[in-house]
Amino acid sequence: MANSVWVFAEVKDGKIKKVTFEMLSEGKKMAEKLGGDLSAVLLGQNVGSLAEQLGHYGADKVYLAEHEALKDYTTDAYSKVIAELIKANEPSIVLYGATVLGKDLSPRVAARVEAGLATDCTGIGLDNSGKLTATRPMFAGKAYADISFSDSKPNMASIRPNALPVSPPDESKKAEVIKVDVNINPDDIRTTIQEFIKTAGERPDLTEAEIIVSGGRGMKGPENFKMLEELADVLGATVGASRAAVDAGWRNVSDQVGQTGKVVSPNLYIACGISGAIQHLAGMSTSKYIVAINKDSEAPIFQKADYGIVDDLFKVLPVLTEELKKLKAEG
Ligand SMILES: Cc1cc2nc3c(=O)[nH]c(=O)nc-3n(C[C@H](O)[C@H](O)[C@H](O)COP(=O)(O)OP(=O)(O)OC[C@H]3O[C@@H](n4cnc5c(N)ncnc54)[C@H](O)[C@@H]3O)c2cc1C
Fold it and tell me: Is 182 found in the same domain as 226?
């Protein structure tokens, strides 16, 4: 369908991920400029009730594909269903979250439909001819590339969580739900899910967290990360770590932020006892606000930080946590 903008609706634990609403909010503006409509693509089993929420965030239509083979994500099943939908409906633009799932899914779909894909973008827009434009960090966040697309359709991009603002939902808005016939044979799926092992506990996933409190070698030992956990509890944050802290065995590798860890883009990143090596900055430099606590005023992290505290973190952290607790109690 010419001029239509599609957003892949990512679902985890029965809930739509926030990055989906971020993409719908931006997608709505693009669809209006293009004079087309905005659609969400929702896959899973028993997920139909989530379509309503997608309408509240601006989707005019929801393509709903329900099948037992779509209950849990597999690359083969999801990419097959989405590629067939794209071929049948020919949207102009398709957006995915640059999440763990989206980073796996989007290139597979791009290959199946032979479309261009800009990955891990922090901004999107339209050029004068209505083609997608995208901005993505490169060279470990030292430069930004402006991406334009050729004439092949659709133009596709994966968008980093927390990079785009969310418009308030409009509960009076309803999306038209289009049920999709799913044709999946057992032979189409080459992998099976044996078990899910949760590592992250109750906190939001690092890559989607709005606030991250991160610790490095300056934390001096695993026991001191308790201070960061306490601060994170007050802020509703997730705890991250530098590679030095992970290599020392103080934190799990799934907590590592950086070039060889996770790329994060929270609204607030608090770096405690982290020097700011280029490989660490590669994973967090697109955070909206960066606060650094480091006793060395020459530490490179201060060149990236919006706010810096030059002091001993063992003095600063307890005071900061206490003051934030008081502020929270005051409402
Ligand atoms: C190929 C490659 C990939 C890499 N990938 C990553 C990656 O993904 N993520 C990553 O983080 N690193 C990565 N690294 C490692 C990176 O180069 C740095 O070695 C690492 O980030 C340093 O971690 P750090 O800042 O915790 O430690 P350090 O550089 O040792 O810094 C510790 C900081 O703590 C401060 N400090 C000490 N005590 C206190 C105190 N009491 N109060 C306040 N401040 C204090 C010090 O002043 C210092 O600035 C990679 C390296 C390579 C070569």
Answer: no
Decide if pLDDT at 201 tops 70.
no
Domain with 70, as residue range(s), is: 5-188
* Cβ atoms of 299 and 276 closer than 8 Å: yes
Rounded to the nearest angstrom, the distance between the alpha carbon of 276 and the centre of ligand 1 is 6
The Cα–Cα gap between 262 and 247 comes to 15
Of all protein residues, whose CA lies closest to atom 8 belonging to ligand 1? Answer: 258
214 close to ligand 1 (CB < 6 Angstrom): no
Our answer on whether the CB atom of 271 is closer than 6 Å to any ligand 1 atom is no
CATH code where residue 33 lies: 3.40.50.620
CB of 227 closer than 6 angstroms to any ligand 1 atom: no
- Any idea which residue has 């030095």 for tokens? 244
Tens-place pLDDT, residues 103-131: 999 999 999 999 999 999 999 999 999 99
Q: Report d(CA 3, CA 32) in Å as an integer.
A: 9
pLDDT reported for residue 199 = 66
Give me the number of domains the chain comprises: 2
> Considering only CA atoms, which residue is closest to atom 29 of ligand 1?
275
- Considering the domain architecture, whether residues 137 and 233 belong to the same structural domain is answered as no
Cα end-to-end distance, the chain, whole Å: 49
Report the C-alpha gap between 250 and 275 in whole angstroms.
Answer: 17
pLDDT of residue 200: 55
Closest ligand 1 atom to Cα of 275: 49
Q: What is the pLDDT of residues 263-303, one digit of tens each?
A: 999 999 999 999 999 999 999 999 999 999 999 999 999 99
